[in-house]
Write a structure and sequence with these properties.
Blueprint: E1 3-8, H1 37-46, E2 55-59, H2 63-72, E3 79-83, H3 89-103, E4 108-113, E5 117-118, H4 121-136, E6 140-145, E7 156-162, E8 169-176, H5 181-190, E9 193-203, H6 204-214, H7 216-227, E10 230-232, E11 235-237, H8 240-244, H9 251-254, E12 262-266, E13 272-273, H10 278-284, E14 293-295, E15 298-301, E16 307-310, E17 315-318, E18 323-327, E19 332-336, H11 343-352, E20 363-366, E21 369-377, E22 380-387, E23 395-397, E24 401-409, E25 412-416, E26 419-423, E27 428-431, E28 437-440, E29 447-455, E30 464-467
GO molecular function: GTP binding; isomerase activity; mannose-1-phosphate guanylyltransferase (GTP) activity
EC number: 2.7.7.13
InterPro entries: GMPP_N, Man1P_GuaTrfase/Man6P_Isoase, Man6P_isomerase-2_C, ManC/GMP-like_b-helix, Mannose-6P_isomerase_type2, NTP_transferase_dom, Nucleotide-diphossugar_trans, RmlC-like_jellyroll
Length: about 475
């Protein structure tokens, strides 16, 4: 009876902005090593004995990011389940349980966020094995992290009596909401509390039984979303109408706090970090003799206890302390470590003003490759486009812009109205406004080209797709 890992890939990309954004949240970033947080999570569970292929829960917009990052580490998911609308973790896990039961009638789920870091993977495997014994005994299990500070950004779990099933397992006495500083200090002083890690383990059937008892309306809608869902290329798409009618709630509120048999495993020694702020990133980064973490092309003088990251150019810092400085091609963030939680306030302002910096990077990833904005002016913009070998953009047309393409590397097959041509380096073509066109890479190396758009409107939504290899309609 294999363990089925359920990896949750939600996220709004606000807390680690500007590196993390709505279209590219932190689980797709390499913040604690060369692999992304999602890839680390997948590899971590792959080290377990008797583990099934991971079941990934994602949203529609990020589906190709998930697929590409799994492909990069040579991993095939058991399923990539797409949520057409977000309904929090309780419905997401319910959908995962129903899908898992189709493959294994006695499935045991290991539910993991995709955006956490765990330094001691051997200890993680030990904690999972302990949780498995509790799950086999019918418990719904969460993993508790012994607190190291009076942190006000985490929920807490107060443990009760030992379960008698395993030495590190305890009945749950109480879940405590994110406390203020005084209450957090009191909880730590009591010595019987853990941080709530957001990781869980239980039999799929046991979780669904509790959801049926505690939130039957939720389970009814999730069951309909799965039953009426459909396979879409390599994904399983939940039914939108059913999920829209589903109540939204977290697994803690909807199930764990009211479950008849809930247990917490003492997960001491994991080196766990939810990477919930830039100060948390700084905690796991290497530091020099001045307490600084310097990533990228960074030059400092008289700087102490700071995190400075340059993504696209040199960053120079002089005579500052306790700062976070993050540079991307289109944004520079400067904040004290004491105010990193307020980064989301800036993102909220950007959203209210309709600015794209809250959603997209200057470099935007697509299933066929990526494009990067180079220059924007009145009625024109310039982009660098990279198309992966064998990939193609959709057959499409624009109402408001024309395009010039100049190949700088590789070979392009271009459909331009009724004509199909091959272009190589230093060759170009012009796509008139309103002309049906398509760009393909028939070669074995990435195709790189410069695109110059001109017209009255240059938004990405000015597109009509007639044919698309990836099932996109807009």
């Amino acid at each position: 009876m294999a363990i089925t890992p359920v990896i949750l890939c939600g996220g709004s990309g606000t807390r680690l902005w500007p590196l993390s954004r709505a279209s590219y949240p932190k689980q797709y970033l390499a913040l604690a090593g060369s692999d992304t947080l999602l890839q680390q999570t997948v590899k971590r569970v792959g080290a377990l004995d008797g583990v099934a292929a991971p079941l990934i829960i994602s949203n529609n917009e990020q589906r190709f990011l998930v697929a590409e990052q799994l492909r990069a580490i040579d991993t095939t998911a058991g399923a990539i389940v797409l949520e057409p609308v977000a309904r929090n973790t309780a419905p997401a896990v319910a959908a995962a349980a129903l899908v898992a039961l189709r493959q294994d009638a006695d499935a045991t789920l290991l539910v993991l966020p995709s955006d956490h870091a765990i330094a001691n993977e051997a200890r993680f495997l030990e904690a999972v094995r302990a949780a498995r014994t509790l799950a086999d005994d019918g418990y719904l299990v969460t993993f508790g992290i012994p607190p190291t500070s009076a942190h006000t950004g985490y929920g807490y779990i107060r443990r009760g009596a030992a379960t008698q099933v395993c030495a590190s397992g305890f009945n749950i006495d109480q879940f405590v909401e994110k406390p203020d500083a005084d209450k957090a200090a009191a909880l730590i002083a009591a010595g019987d509390c853990y941080w709530n890690s957001g990781m869980f383990m239980f039999k799929a059937s046991a979780y669904l039984d509790e959801l049926e008892r505690l939130a039957p309306a939720m389970l009814k809608q999730v069951r309909a979303a799965v039953e009426q869902g459909a396979v879409d290329i390599d994904f399983f798409r939940l039914d939108k109408a059913s999920l829209e009618a589903c109540p939204s709630d977290s697994i803690d509120y909807a199930v764990m706090e009211k479950a008849r048999r809930a247990a917490v495993v003492d997960a001491d020694g994991l080196g766990w970090n939810d990477i919930g702020s830039w100060s948390a990133v700084a905690e796991i980064a290497e530091r020099d003799e001045n307490g600084n973490s310097l990533i990228g092309d960074v030059v400092t003088h008289g700087v102490k206890n700071s995190y400075v990251r340059g993504e696209s150019r040199m960053v120079a810092a002089i005579g500052v302390e306790n700062l976070v400085i993050v540079e991307t091609p289109d944004v520079v963030l400067v904040t004290s470590k004491d105010h990193v939680q307020d980064v989301k306030r800036v993102v909220e302002t950007l959203i209210a003003e309709g600015r794209s910096e809250s959603v997209f990077h200057q470099r935007v990833f697509r299933p066929w490759g990526d494009y990067e904005g180079i220059c924007v002016g009145d009625r024109f913009q310039v982009k660098k486009i990279v198309v992966k070998p064998g990939a193609s953009l959709s057959l499409q047309m624009h109402f408001h812009r024309s395009e010039h393409w100049i190949v700088v590397k590789g070979t392009a097959r271009v459909v331009n109205g009724d004509t199909t041509t091959l272009l190589t380096e230093n060759q170009s073509t012009y796509i008139p406004l309103g002309t049906t066109h398509r760009l393909e890479n028939p070669g074995r190396v990435p195709l790189e080209l410069i695109e110059v758009q001109s017209g009255a409107y240059l938004g990405e939504d000015d597109i009509v797709r007639f044919q698309d290899d990836y099932g996109r309609t807009k």
